[in-house]
Here is the input.
Amino acid sequence: MKSRYSTERIASILQQKKDGTPVIRLCCEHDISVATFYTWSRKFRDEVRHSATELLPAEGNSAESSHRPHAYPEAKSAEAAVAASVSTPE
Here is the structure.
């Protein structure tokens, strides 16, 4: 089913919200439901996130950009040292 609204028009409506126009007013002016507005908002937000991740360099150490503690190299070496000391009988 073809949408009544082009991608450009949807983007324009979402930009009006960013500029401060209340959602209810936009929905009335463009004859859309509030649910449709938020569906579009979520869809475009997800598309922006997806395209932003595609712009990140594919090479390099992803552990450096991660904020998870287990992704740091020193945490991995500490885990390996503990595992080695536990598995080595004395």
The CA atoms of residues 34 and 40 lie 10 Å apart. The chain has a mean pLDDT of 75.
